[in-house]
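Possible regression after last week's pipeline update?

I re-ran a chain I had predicted before the update to compare outputs. Posting the input and the new output here so someone can diff against the archived version. Not blocking, just want to make sure nothing changed silently.
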Amino acid sequence: MKKLILSLVIVTLIVSCKNETKDKVEVATEAVTSDVKETVDSAKIKTETVLDTVKAKTEETLKNAVDKGADKVIDAAGKVKKEVKK
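New output (post-update):
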């Protein structure tokens, strides 16, 4: 009889511990999921900022290159015009 009661007590403890452990695992999983989402969101914001900066610098560089090219074409056209007049 003592062995039966002792066995039931042990089984009850194991089952209750299993439920508590399961709850703790669920809480930990939620915390990790939340941290991962925050990290991904942070990385996304940083990436978008860097891309915007690169885009702005590229546009500025391209505009400068086009302006320089246009200046050279105008200079060359002026030289050709002078040569034609001669």
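Follow-up from reviewer: compared with the archived run. Residues 24 and 30 are 10 Å apart (CA to CA). Marking as no regression found.
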